Amino acid sequence: MKILMISIYKTLLLCFFLCLATFGLSQMVEKSTAGPFLLKNGTIHTITNGIVKGDLLIEGMKIKSIGTNLESDEAKILDCTDLHIYPGMIDGGTTLGLSEISSISLTKDYNEPGDFTPHMEALTAVNPNSVNIPVTRTNGVTTVLSVPSGGLFPGRAALIHLHGYTPQQMFAGFKSHVLKFPSSGKKHRWDRRKPEEIKKDYKDQQKKLNDFWKSAVQFSKIDSAANKQGKILNSYNPQLASLSDVVKGEAPLIIDVNKKDDILVAIDFVTRNKIQAIFSGVSEGYLIADSLVKYDIPVIVGPILSLPSRTSDRFDVAYKNAGELLKAGVKLCIKTNENENVRNLPFNAGFAANYGMGTDEAMKAITINAAEIFGLEKEIGSLENGKKANLYICDGDPFEMKTSITHLFINGFNVPIENRHTLLHDEFLERSPGLQK
Amino acid sequence: MFMIYKIFAFCLLYFCSHSIVAQEAILIKNATLLTITDGVKEDTDILLKNGKIESIGENLSYGGATEIDATGKFVMPGIVDAHSHVGIDAVNEATNPVTAEVFVGDAINPYQVAIYRALAGGVTVSHAMHGSANAIGGQCETMKHRYGALNPAALKMEGAPRTIKFALGENPMRVHGENKKVAPASRMGMEQTFRRAFAEAKIYTSEMEAFKAGKSKKAPLYSLRSETLMDIINGDIIIHCHSYRADEILMLMKVLEDYGIEKICFQHVNEGFKIAPELAAFGAYASVFSDWWAYKFEVYYSTAYNAAILTRNGVITSINSDDRELMRHLYHEASKTQRYGNLTDNEALRLITINPAIQLGIEKRVGSLEKGKDADVVIFEGHPLSIYCKPIMTIVDGVICFDYVNDPSDMRLDIDPSEELPAFYEQDHDHEDSCMEGVHLH
């Protein structure tokens, strides 16, 4: 009986999702088309080699060549006169693909219970069909880091391109473990813990972190020794095993840390343990930028559109942080920490540009600098021969809201400028029937 | 002993803080004026005197006026935010599906640094709203950002019409239906909650009238709730209704029609674009987010083109923040309607000036640069719809309340001397939280 009930329930559930799927059909974006494509007479913002007027040929997944008077027999030609061509933007921290509707917990896949779940893989849970993905890429964001959260070691983040039918197709070639560094501050405005509770929690977290790290180092040593002797450890400890390359300094670790004192403790932690670290968040980085430079730690700054963390702060500290870090010589990229509104990455960069960074540097931050920080500067982040054809075409400065993105290419595919928002617009701008019954 | 210290600190602050000092007159010279209602005027002066816009024209002069050279700069009316929870210390009275008797104006906190930060984004007027826990929530307060005034009452915009918060959909359903197992637990229950509240108010009123006329010896038990609901029916209070889905919005318009209620502004109204013709026909207003969506199921079928579609269909539309961070860059939020819907500069600027002013019933006082209106103006470096703009000075009632160049970094009015750790917040960027502030679900 029970089994029957469950199967009825399952059938109903299936019907429900099928209904959803049919409803969704009217809001599915068009299929992308494969190249080759020849973009003619555009203003090409290469990022790494200045601005060039000319043509850009896309063949397969790559940029075949950039130059003047390029020709191709098979290529579909796209006239780019008066248009600008930019490399796709890269967001250094999102939950895109890992969450659909944040208030419905069963649609969230970025969080596991417990402080130590470094063996969780974000890429496993990336949903290529998330409605939020087309909404994001049509603003020119082609690549994002999808980051798990919760606890101290929530898992391994994955860089994905916003096009493809499977997570593996989307994977951009960079993964990194994440550490949410213990914070000595309040969690948010409604954090009701007493100061002594915050201090105690902070000490507890620090101890937990250091103990776990010691275990990971120990595990790595034993594992390496066993490997050398051709043996296999006959104990299953995926948590410690997954950190093995990180403790050996052979794989990066993204450390989410914001408060000045905490950043200093984190710097001590990474230098002591010889960690290949990338800091993320870093809202008070501008106060200790010199230390970040001294220890050569790259950072993922953001969100830029944030409130100051202290009531005593100047109102625009978050707007200015990236610019001040840049002036000090820190290597940086930008993150939105967003899900459904990762599309605001160009505007986050625009605010940073306006408050001290300048347009060129802000553009670099979300293209080539991000690629460098993720070790992919030979593949993405600029328009160069042989690089992946991740690019968009627009009619002006992409940081300006007035500018329209007219075309989009990811992995060499021409991706339609369509998403749920544009489709609803097309259907409802002039409703038919209007008021008649 | 500690008390004395506190009093001393308070006095010190009182005298040192940037308190309101009204200049007699401010003359802004050679600006590009974005008047909103009368086009763009280049190389024009604007004189602010006694808290009002005294005159607009070329080559103005006024003896003793503080002159500000605004050559190459843009001047626009102070931004109006039709949905915020800034400046109040209590947001939700989540104890009953109907709490028309409560009033957020009783909980004004003039010390909140969020008010200053809003000024730094050019916002001079905000609508401090009750939260969305109840179908009929509390009455709201239209506030002038007179930061520096220490008397809570000084922030109230005198003469602004009364407004009240209604809420549809998931929030009241969660708080009452799901959490307390009482109606409304569904959008059907929502309708009946409104119908019962209005019907009971009418019965109460007829009983009260009968008693006053000597036709009945027994007076009904005094009910501020019913009195307030009757004021809504009589058209003395503008409803501002938190809403998302098209069906629930149509439902409420039908209920209001049955009670002859006309004044309503739908807030958030993410699916407003689906029923723009019906909203326009009713004469309902819409106050929307520029691009928030998908944070809950009822906003999953949203579009950032909402404001543009509503505008094109003749609905008076504004863009609001409902968030102390977003509130600081409403000019930027308004500009997104140019990417999502190609609105003209003036259409986009209307969304954060005269339109929200109309929705709050204060359009004769604020929302445009016109002679005789309140001297609420913002000076921008760069056009306010460009990403490369910066608000550099905000003036409220002729008083400079934000000055990018001259303000010190720390603009708090109050400091808690007992605070052991300087408050530092890891994150403060959660959608919807402010609307549900003070609600504790089990």
Query: What is the strand tally of chain A?
Result: 16
Query: What's the CATH H-level superfamily name of the largest domain in chain B?
Result: Metal-dependent hydrolases
Percent of residues of chain A in beta strands?
A: 15-25%
- The CATH architecture category of the largest domain in chain A equals Alpha-Beta Barrel
* Beta-strand content bin of chain B: 15-25%
Instruction: Give the fraction of residues assigned to helices of chain A.
Output: 25-40%
Radius of gyration of chain A in whole Å, from Cα?
A: 24 Å
CATH fold group of the largest domain in chain B? TIM Barrel
Please give the alpha-carbon distance between the first and last residues of chain B.
41 Å
Taking Cα atoms only, what radius of gyration of chain B do you get, to the nearest Å?
Answer: 23 Å
Under CATH at level 1, the class of the largest domain in chain B stands as Alpha Beta
Tertiary shape of chain B: globular
| Count of β-strands of chain B | 17
Total count of helical runs of at least 4 residues of chain A: 14
The domain tally of chain B reads 2
- Cα shape of chain A: globular
Order of helices and strands of chain A: HEEEEEEHHEEHEHHHEHEHEHEHHHEEEH
Structural write-up:
The complex is a heterodimer of chains A (437) and B (442). Chain A has 437 residues and is of the alpha/beta class. Chain A folds into two domains: 29-87 and 381-437, Urease, subunit C, domain 1, CATH 2.30.40.10; 89-380, TIM Barrel (Alpha-Beta Barrel), CATH 3.20.20.140. Helix content of chain A is 34%, strand content 21%. Chain A has 14 helices and 16 strands. Chain A has helices at 2-25, 122-125, 132-137, 167-170, 195-228, 238-242, 244-247, 260-272, 289-294, 317-328, 345-357, 359-365, 368-373, 420-428, and strands at 37-45, 51-59, 62-67, 76-79, 84-87, 89-94, 141-146, 155-161, 171-180, 252-257, 276-281, 299-301, 332-334, 391-394, 405-410, 413-415. In chain A, the strands form two sheets. In chain A, strands 1, 2, 3, 4, 5, 14, 15 and 16 form an eight-stranded mixed beta sheet that branches. Chain A has an eight-stranded mixed beta sheet with strand order 6-7-8-9-10-11-12-13. In chain A, strand 7 (141-146) and strand 8 form a beta hairpin. In chain A, helix 10 (317-328) crosses helix 11 and helix 11 (345-357) packs across helix 12 (359-365). The relative contact order of chain A is 0.16. The model of chain A is unreliable at 12-26 (pLDDT under 50). By secondary structure, chain B is an alpha/beta fold. Chain B has two domains: 18-78 and 367-412, Urease, subunit C, domain 1 (Roll); 79-361 and 431-436, Alpha-Beta Barrel (TIM Barrel), CATH 3.20.20.140. In chain B, 27% of the residues lie in helices and 22% in strands. Chain B has eleven helices and 17 strands. In chain B, the strands form three sheets. In chain B, strands 1, 2, 3, 4, 5, 15, 16 and 17 form an eight-stranded mixed beta sheet that branches. Chain B has a six-stranded mixed beta sheet with strand order 8-10-11-12-13-14, sandwiched between helices. In chain B, strands 6-7-9 form a three-stranded mixed beta sheet. The two termini of chain B are 41 Å apart. The interface between A and B is large, with 64 and 66 residues.
